[in-house]
Amino acid sequence: MTLIKICGLSTPDTLSAALAAGASHVGFVFFPPSPRNVGFDVANGLAQAVPNGRAKVGVFVDPDDALIDAAMAAARLNVIQLHKTAPERIAAIRARTGRETWGAVAVKTRADLDGARALSGAADRVLYDAKTPPGAALPGGMGLRFDWGLLDGFRHPLPWALSGGLDAGNVAEAIRVTRAPLVDVSSGVESAPGVKDAARILAFCTAVRGA
Ligand SMILES: O=C(O)c1ccccc1NCC(=O)[C@H](O)[C@H](O)COP(=O)(O)O
């Protein structure tokens, strides 16, 4: 069964839609430039609606310890997802927090997969995400995809997840091509940047189950 992370949730209704549709992981973004950024109070309220057995994932961009601690306290995070964070720092965060920790690897070319090897021993899971353009406001959540064929034959050093430009129309093909054990979506289940859409969330989860 393919696991599903719906990322960038910020309202009770769309969180509820993700849980009802069968998401195994729900993501809360702690990065103020993002249209999906949640404050600690909002994150706290959302987290209370997540039952045991579903993972609450905090998404961060090279965070300091204070931000991680505040977010963990507010949202009782199960997983820490780190973008643009050096492997040594990822390892330190993992050791300090004791939380399951994911390292995002931005992929455009096969050489970018070296970043996954560097996470061996530092993270619990690699999240392959599409590389965003130089100077982009966000390192993820931009609806961009990479060539899934780059993963063909690659020996994954850790458990892994696929993200970047997935939606209800392409996720079954993505799973068929890559055999991803976990898929992660944000823009593909939105009606506008940062605005999650319950119908699209349901369609995405239904497509994953049908894959
Ligand atoms: O989604 C964001 O706004 C975001 C901001 C800063 C760092 C990471 C962010 N998203 C990370 C994710 O896990 C997204 O789900 C992933 O990048 C896929 O996004 P999309 O291509 O929009 O489905």
TrEMBL record:
EC primary class: isomerase
On the tree of life, the source organism's domain of life is Bacteria
Give the InterPro entries listed for this entry. Answer: Aldolase_TIM, PRAI_dom, RibuloseP-bd_barrel, TrpF_fam
Q: Might you give the EC number(s) for this enzyme?
A: 5.3.1.24
Spell out the reaction equation it catalyses.
Answer: N-(5-phospho-beta-D-ribosyl)anthranilate = 1-(2-carboxyphenylamino)-1-deoxy-D-ribulose 5-phosphate
> What residue range is the signal peptide?
none
| GO MF annotation, one | isomerase activity
Any one Pfam family match given in the protein's UniProt record, by short name: PRAI
The UniProt entry's sequence similarity note says: Belongs to the TrpF family.
Name recorded for this polypeptide: N-(5'-phosphoribosyl)anthranilate isomerase
Organism of origin is: Sphingomonas hankookensis
